[in-house]
């Protein structure tokens, strides 16, 4: 149906809780578009034939097609377009950095604001969840088994795609709950956990087995998984190992890594009055770092009742790596930005607890190898910031457990698993990897994209092995299949 375009240069604002209300509760900050808002916003899309938004989407969602359906009030049709490319639209609509991806390339952004693609994606996914009862069925089994390590967005996406093809998929997850960073890192007030759980329940209904409290590398090794009959393994174990600065005082009581702080709150529910998980109820908190993780930790500290929360970052406001929207939300909620500042020592009292942070002021010099201006210490600028808690949020890397227990698995100097590119094949036969475990800390959508590519490559690999072994051949372990392939090759 022809759509009357809405030529308003501005996107429809997102209804949100007031800053002074939301910084005292744990509910979602953004409330989502109403039906009418979504339809009107969708009418701002020009349905460009060249679709620059689509090519900027890491999973190539047909964006104009789903938006056109919203404009025509065909919400279920829009949902089907979304889910043809993305397994987690309700998640991506909330946390994807659209401003650097689809919305960054939107033609409407040239003379005004881009179409609110992310907000529309969220609306469609929420509409579907509230109005349509899904009954996912387990597809007919194809007789082959795949193991996945890690139940974050990458592992879950790969599991879904393989299960649809009939594979018997088992996800081994180290924590007691599936979801990866979506449950232990990203706060409830940005991504309600019920939404993630719904996606996981859908996978289980399709027959995916999720074994929690299973640390691969400790309980079982990758070699043992092959011995158990899995024909391929997808490693999606993320990058959960926190970095520290190596400055004096980092082992004082009251110093957390952002990962530990967020895990205690999000996964272990330390924010609830009835929770048994201990968490420091701080007065003044310094969060060191400027990414999304730092914003999440700072905003949680405020919600837990801290009177002052500082973001301490060594470059300027312009250089903050966090999403602009998250920075704005943090500012509105009263987080204080101490930019061009770097800690040099954590100070402790007689009880071994944090009682301050010695800092230096910085200025920006010439661009460094990363293209960003290098922060340089200002001579004689030392000062003490009065804080009782310090949260380190300066990055993470993959945990070394899997690389230490998997002979022949190549990793780079950052500890990331090396793969052949898009397929995710590692230096080990039948072992694939993707998501943060390969790229280092990145984004949900990139991790999902890697899971999709790996699922396709794993399917091709197993089918090729099975065909070489004979169409009726019983599935074998990858090692046995490899021997069969080699024997076939010699015979030819
Ligand atoms: C606080 C925070 C906020 C973020 N905000 C955003 C955002 O707004 N937008 C965005 O796009 N991205 C954001 N990110 C990044 C994003 O969440 C990650 O890039 C993404 O989750 C990576 O997915 P993954 O599946 O590769 O790994 P993960 O989500 O880390 O999942 C890996 C899983 O593997 C498990 N695991 C690890 N080792 C083992 C083992 N040996 N055996 C078994 N299981 C194991 C872990 O417990 C975990 O559940 C954020 C990250 C954090 C920490
Ligand atoms: S670039 Fe913007 S206006 Fe063009 S199709 Fe994509 S969302 Fe619509």
**C-alpha geometry:** globular
Gyration radius from CA atoms, angstroms: 24 Å
Q: Largest sheet at a glance? A: 5 strands, parallel
Total helical elements: 18
Low-confidence stretches: 471-492
Q: What is the oligomer described by this structure?
A: single chain
Q: Which molecules other than protein and nucleic acid are bound?
A: flavin-adenine dinucleotide, iron/sulfur cluster
Average pLDDT value?
Answer: 93
Find the structural class using helix and strand composition. alpha/beta
Total count of strands: 16
Distance from N terminus to C terminus (CA atoms, Å) equals: 59 Å
Can you walk through the features of this model?
- The protein is built from 18 helices and 16 strands.
- The chain is α/β, with parallel strands linked by helices.
- The protein starts with 18 loop residues before the first helix and ends with a helix.
- The model is unreliable at 471-492 (pLDDT under 50).
- Residues 95-97, 149-155, 172-175, 180-181, 185-186, 214-217, 236-238, 240, 262, 292-293, 296, 399, 401-402, 435-437, 441-445, 447 line the site of flavin-adenine dinucleotide (FAD).
Helices and strands in order, then pairings?
Elements: H1 19-22, H2 35-42, H3 52-55, H4 63-71, H5 75-85, H6 89-95, H7 117-131, E1 145-149, H8 153-164, E2 168-172, H9 181-184, H10 193-205, E3 209-211, H11 222-227, E4 232-235, E5 241-242, E6 255-257, H12 258-267, E7 284-288, H13 292-303, E8 308-312, H14 324-332, E9 336-338, E10 341-348, E11 354-367, E12 373-377, E13 383-385, E14 389-392, E15 396-397, H15 401-405, E16 431-433, H16 436-439, H17 444-468, H18 478-491
Parallel strand pairs: 1-2, 1-4, 2-3, 4-16, 6-14, 7-8, 7-14, 8-9
Antiparallel strand pairs: 5-15, 10-11, 11-12, 11-13
Flavin-adenine dinucleotide binds at residues 95-97, 149-155, 172-175, 180-181, 185-186, 214-217, 236-238, 240, 262, 292-293, 296, 399, 401-402, 435-437, 441-445, 447.
């Amino acid at each position: 149906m022809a759509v009357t375009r809405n030529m308003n240069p501005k996107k429809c604002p997102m209804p949100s809780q007031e800053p002074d209300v939301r910084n005292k509760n744990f509910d979602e900050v953004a409330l989502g578009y109403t039906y009418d808002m979504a339809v009107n916003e969708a009418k701002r899309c020009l349905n460009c034939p060249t679709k620059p938004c689509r090519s900027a989407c890491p999973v190539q969602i047909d964006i104009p097609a789903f938006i056109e359906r919203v404009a025509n009030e065909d919400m279920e049709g829009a949902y089907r377009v979304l889910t043809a490319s993305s397994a987690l639209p309700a998640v991506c609509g909330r946390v994807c950095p659209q401003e650097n991806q689809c919305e960054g390339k939107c033609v409407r952004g040239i003379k005004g604001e881009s179409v609110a693609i992310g907000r529309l994606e969220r609306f469609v996914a929420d509409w579907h969840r509230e109005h349509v009862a899904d009954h996912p069925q387990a597809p007919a089994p194809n007789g082959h088994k795949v193991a996945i390590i890690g139940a974050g967005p990458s592992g879950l996406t790969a599991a879904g795609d393989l299960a649809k093809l009939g594979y018997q998929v088992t996800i081994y997850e180290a924590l007691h709950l599936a979801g990866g960073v979506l449950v232990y890192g990203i706060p409830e007030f940005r991504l309600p956990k019920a939404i993630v759980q719904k996606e996981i329940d859908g996978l289980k209904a399709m027959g995916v087995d999720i074994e929690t409290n299973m640390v691969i590398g400790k309980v079982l090794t990758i070699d043992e998984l092959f011995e158990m009959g899995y024909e391929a393994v997808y490693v999606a174990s993320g990058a959960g190992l926190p970095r520290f600065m190596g400055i004096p005082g980092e082992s004082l009581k009251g110093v957390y890594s952002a990962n530990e702080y967020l895990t205690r709150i999000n996964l272990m529910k330390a924010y609830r009055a009835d929770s048994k998980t201990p968490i420091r109820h701080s007065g003044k908190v310094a969060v060191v770092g400027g990414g999304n993780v730092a914003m999440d930790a700072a905003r949680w500290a405020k919600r837990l009742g801290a009177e002052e929360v500082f973001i301490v970052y060594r470059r300027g406001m312009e250089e903050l790596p966090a999403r602009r929207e998250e920075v704005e939300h943090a500012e509105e909620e009263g987080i204080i930005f101490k930019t061009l500042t770097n800690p040099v020592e954590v100070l402790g009292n007689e009880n071994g607890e944090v009682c301050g942070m010695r800092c230096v002021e910085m200025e920006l010099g010439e661009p460094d190898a990363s293209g960003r201006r290098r922060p340089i210490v200002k001579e004689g600028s030392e000062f003490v910031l009065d804080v009782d808690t310090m949260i380190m949020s300066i990055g993470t890397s993959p945990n070394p457990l899997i690389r230490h227990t998997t002979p022949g698995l190549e990793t780079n100097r950052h500890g990331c698993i090396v793969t052949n590119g898009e397929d995710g094949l590692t230096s080990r036969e039948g072992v694939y990897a993707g998501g943060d475990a390969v790229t280092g800390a990145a984004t949900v959508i990139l991790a999902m994209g890697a899971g999709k590519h790996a699922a396709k490559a794993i399917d091709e690999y197993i089918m090729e092995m099975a065909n070489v072994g004979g169409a009726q051949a019983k599935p074998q372990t990858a090692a046995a299949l490899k021997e069969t392939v080699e024997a076939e090759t010699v015979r030819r």
